[in-house]
Structures
1.
Amino acid sequence: MLLFPDSDTPDDKHDRLGVLPDELLLQILESLGRISRMHLCNTSRLNRRYHRLSDAILYKSVQFQTPELHLTFSESLGRRPRRGSSINEVTLVYPSSELSQLALNAPVHNSAYRASSFDTLSQTISIMSNLEKLDIAVPDVLLSGIGALFNGPFDLACLKWCSLFYQCPNDRYWDLRENIHVFAHPTLETLIIRRAKFDDKGFDFLERPHTTALKALHLVECDISDDGLSDVLELPEALEEFVMTQTEEPSPELEETGDNLADYVVALKSQAASLKSFTIDSPTLGCRRPLRMRDFAELTTLRMNWDYQLFGETSPKPRLFSVGLPPQLEVLEFFNDMGTDEEVTDLLLYTIEQKDIIAKAWTKMVAREDDCYVPRVIKDACKEAGLDLFIIGGEDSEAD
């Protein structure tokens, strides 16, 4: 293959690949890039056509692991804005230590940019008109600048996946309100938020957004109010997956999170018609009464820490032998020991025995054995009802 630096259509006698359409040639170059990005870079120098197609692959995914990288790349993108449309994925992941080494008023080596130009970061990302995935894990000094991306009008018209995490001093929770408009992004389908705090004011703005395309929301070790959550969950048109996790001993202590799991179920009621998977792995949450989830008509997978989070803890007050399981429930999973509350065990036993009436589609239950064991009466009831019981951990791990 010869070098034709000023040609878009090299002589077919010398370039047999040149006769292929762009779509097929792009697939070949993608395979070459997976083998060696260096070879792909060399190919991009052959002629204008290969340069254009190789750029679409070389810049498809961009990862910034130091602040210098994103500043110098911003400068490069400013000179060649066309490359911005080739970028589909951007990852900004670097620790506070990287940022602290960069004086905020000092020039970046081999760059006309100054480190104080972090305000231009959101402008740089907004140039990436076809961006679909944005992964943020940077110091909180960049929180407001990146949050401006979501304030609208929306430049990221193709964004589908976003993860947000800002590193705060003393490992504090960052304020989600600074990036609150990410919930209003019209095309976003998956949103992952790590170690953020959010109070009960919710989406407290004069103008509320229209319904959004959000399908999956993950709140990882967040300190979030159920009222605030209820407010932002009114925005998705049809949320399908909700995940909320927290450690056994959160640090710093939780200020906004309530202590009742049922309140978070109520917060999800606006999505009851579409939600398919509901996971709360939050040991700090208790439950005083059995959950009522009959309105969750499409929910097939339900996961939580203990059986008493579903049935409510033992109470001196009498209660009915029932729990409002989702009508289409297929999988029920408990992350931690079950059978530690005798009254709750009786309620679970009754529910299994009445499975064909309470939840006809229920086929699988997952439990763990660590310090405690799954009660034998529960194992026997599952066999009798034709319910697959998968036990994880313990010496007697089994799938009955």
2.
Amino acid sequence: MAKAIRFHQTGGPEVLRYEDAEVGEPGPGQVRIRHAAVGLNFADIYFRTGLYPAPLPSGIGTEAAGTVVSVGPDVTSVSVGDHVTYTGAYNTLGAYCTERVIDAAPLIKLPDDIPFETAAAMTMRGFTASYLMRRIYAFNAGDTILLHAAAGGVGLIVSQWAKLLGLTVIGTVSNDAKAEVARAHGCDYTIDYSREDVAKRVRELTNGVGVNVVFDSVGKDTFEASLDSLKRRGLMVCVGTASGPIPPFNPQLLAHKGSLYLTRPALADYIADPAEKAELAAELFGHVAAGRIRIEINQKYALEDAVQAHRDLESRKTTGSSVFVLEQ
């Protein structure tokens, strides 16, 4: 029988349960997938804690890769035997499982040279990096970015992509080991936020000017320092709230700090259009297949170890990407 991780109430990692799961057969527009690898993302914690509401009991996880084992009526985009990956939000919730029925629309066929584990580690993170690099701001060679959580899964991809565009990358990290990882993947400078004043150090590194763009996935703890790191008319991109939601603030603050811009993008809005999604996927897969961007899978778990995986992720023990590897 298929297995799945579900939660029946919101809370800490201990609410996750490893359960038997009835899968059933796909209906119109649906397929059945046997997963080979499942991605672990910080967004999963938001669902588990209730920050992103879901009807209970609920499955968890929004990203996985595997093989199509059956297709329902009216499905023409994929066939039985295809290797596929997917990511999303509510439309793909429930990825922590061995098999599932899912709508065919979110599925992306995998190129032959992208393995399942790589796909599960990079689809959400890679798409996030791709829209940050290609849709959020019109970068020019020589621009400078501040990248929080530079040693994380998204951070390592963004750093490498930024170097392909000729950008200078300043990354924040929490310790020397993570600084070494970040520099190995393209960060020109690293700042240890546990012992350095981030905004002050950014000003020193940019001769007082500040950076063009800040990518901030931390939220509450870094918000003010991020704003203070921007150059006049710079862009603050809030891409996550790992430390908690950003408190309410008066937008006049943005004017006081240099007529700054602020955006809080969501991946779903950048892959909603099939043509744009295909374009982003082609560029992402091309970079990975050619070795221009390396996907670092530094943590692997069995599905039944989801509680420990969430504990590791929340405690910021992880670097790069984390995946659940399933027996085939």
